[in-house]
Design brief:
The complex is a heterodimer of chains A (264) and B (223).
Chain A lengths: L2 E6 L7 H14 L4 E5 L7 H4 L10 H5 L5 H4 L1 E2 L7 E4 L12 H12 L4 E5 L6 H8 L3 E6 L3 H15 L8 E7 L1 H5 L6 H8 L2 E7 L2 H8 L11 H13 L16 H6 L3
Helix pairs in contact in A: 1-11, 5-6
Chain B lengths: L8 E6 L2 E6 L5 H18 L5 E6 L7 H12 L4 E7 L5 H11 L1 E4 L2 E2 L4 E4 L2 E4 L2 E2 L4 E4 L3 E3 L2 E2 L2 E4 L9 E3 L6 E4 L2 E4 L9 E5 L5 E5 L3 H4 L11
Parallel strand pairs in B: 2-3, 3-4, 5-8, 6-9, 7-10, 8-11, 9-12, 10-13, 11-14, 13-15
Antiparallel strand pairs in B: 1-2, 14-17, 15-16, 17-18
Helix pairs in contact in B: 1-2
Classes of the chains: A alpha/beta (264), B alpha/beta (223).
């Protein structure tokens, strides 16, 4: 029986889709069978991030309306043998073309075949969010070290806690800028985690390659040396039950003499 | 049946008027017949003048139906009236509501953005109230935890309600219909926020609470 996890944040633009794609890829790299569900009806982009958009024939609304069988709509990512699949969102359907019960139904059908079912939720806390949450056993709440994102995450955690899911929500802090955290201009990891009062699943250090790779339809996770990639890989291992220590956040220390002679 | 030996209705003259005791050990039907007979006798003995009666039902709580039955007996004589009807006992659900209104709730955990916790009575808050979260009490709020959101005391309009404790990081506090936006943070754990005689939300010292709101300390007497 697979585990269904919803990736959500409340606020838009904090990296839900990127996180879904990278965690999914990282799990597939570990040999798990993963299916990603894009639930952002009307604004699908999980397929784009993975470079699979030209392969879409049917989408999730086609499945719920009976125009296609679930298996016809699943897109296989050939880079990962038979491990990674995507169920794309509908592009030309109304935002509420999907009902929570229908999502639950689809997830139930996928459970036998996959180890992880990752539901990429749209921003907001309306119908799209409810759809995504309904099918999930647990939630990954994505935030960035910004007050607006943390405040929205707080609201979302409140809504998730009301639902009594199998697993309590866990936190991913995305786009960490080491320098800003170092000099105290951004909220730090402990501060955010303590404020939200939920377990920290992992941290992702901001890296240009995250955007650069996704522009090419790749995920940063495929580069083993990248810092952001390590963050995602650690998250995947923690999801599989391993205990992986948190990445050290120290920047390369600049020596006193070096600072003295290289000001600015 | 011992009903024979018990007087179902006893008439007593007191300093402040007539009192009718409806014996709580007598059968209800016996009370109605006795009362009927008694009133008729009174009407014929004293044919003039308006009379008011205080009715005491002892340990029997009269239902609305029973109350109208009694009222109907009195209505037949235009000049007899019921001044009051009291029992020694109270309806359990009404009493529970009263008790709850007096209760002090200990509240912990996290109140998150968009969430609102509401209580009847006083609240001792030992949790964390996040920005945009609301803690609401019809009574007073005693803050031991951390508050960043909105505190509402005296939510049903009780101007004697207070907020005691550190509100430095709160966004806003309200007591009854007064509002204060908190933008200073020089409050401390012994800050007392209350409505003063001029109906203005003011801050003082928690040590003065017992003098200022003595009722808060002896609530059971009001029950």
């Amino acid at each position: 029986m697979g585990t269904a996890l919803v990736v959500t944040s409340g606020k838009g633009g904090v990296g839900k889709t990127t996180t879904s794609a990278n965690i999914g890829t990282a799990l597939a790299l570990q040999g798990k069978r993963v299916v990603l569900l894009d639930l952002d009806i009307g604004l699908r982009n999980l397929d784009v991030v993975l470079g699979l958009s030209n392969r879409i024939i049917y989408d999730i609304v086609d499945v719920t309306t009976g125009r296609a069988k679930l298996h016809q709509a699943l897109i296989k990512d050939k880079r990962f043998d038979d491990l990674l699949y995507v169920l794309p969102a509908a592009q030309n359907a109304e935002k509420d073309a999907l009902e929570p019960e229908q999502v639950k139904d689809i997830v139930a059908q996928l459970r036998d075949e996959f180890d992880f079912i990752i539901l990429d939720s749209p921003a907001g806390i309306e119908q799209g969010f409810r759809n995504a949450v309904e099918g999930a056993d647990g939630a990954i709440v994505v935030t960035t070290p910004e007050i607006s994102a943390v405040s929205d995450a707080d609201r979302v955690v409140g809504l998730l806690e009301q639902r009594d899911m199998v697993y309590p929500p866990r936190l991913v802090i995305n786009r960490i800028r080491l320098k800003m955290m170092d000099d105290g201009r951004a909220m730090d990891v402990d501060e955010i985690t303590q404020h939200l009062g939920i377990d920290l699943l992992g941290i992702i250090i901001d890296d240009d390659d995250v955007i650069a790779t996704s522009n090419k339809g790749d995920t940063v996770v495929m580069d083993p040396d990248n810092l952001a990639s390590k963050g995602y890989r650690n998250i995947a291992r923690r999801l599989m039950g391993e205990s992986v220590p948190l990445m050290k956040l120290e920047q390369k220390k600049v020596g006193f003499w070096q600072r003295l002679f290289h000001r600015g | 049946m011992r009903g024979e030996s018990v007087d179902a209705v006893i008439l007593k003259g007191r300093k402040d008027g007539f009192e009718l005791q409806l014996t709580d050990t007598a059968a209800w039907d016996a009370i109605l017949t006795d009362l009927d007979a008694l009133l008729q006798k009174l009407a014929s003995d004293a044919p003039e003048g308006n009379v008011e009666f205080k009715l005491l039902s002892g340990n029997r709580l009269l239902t609305a139906d029973q109350q109208t039955q009694i009222q109907r007996l009195f209505d037949r004589f235009g000049r007899f009236e019921i001044k009051s009807l009291t029992a020694n006992v109270e309806d359990p659900s009404a009493f529970k509501a009263k008790l709850l209104a007096q209760a002090t709730h200990i509240v912990g955990g996290i109140v998150r953005s968009g969430q609102s916790l509401e209580f009847h009575g006083d609240v001792v808050f030992v949790g964390t109230l996040h920005v945009s979260g609301t803690l609401k009490a019809t009574g007073s709020i005693f803050v031991l935890g951390h508050v960043e959101g909105l505190l509402i005391a005296g939510a049903a309009g009780d101007t004697s309600a207070v907020i005691a404790g550190d509100i430095s990081h709160a966004g806003q506090i309200r007591i009854a219909d007064t509002v204060e936006i908190i933008d200073k943070n020089d409050y401390s754990a012994d800050t007392l926020s209350y409505i003063n005689d001029l109906h203005i939300l003011e801050h003082g010292h928690v040590a003065d609470l017992s003098k200022m709101r003595p009722k808060l300390f002896r609530k059971l007497e009001d029950l």
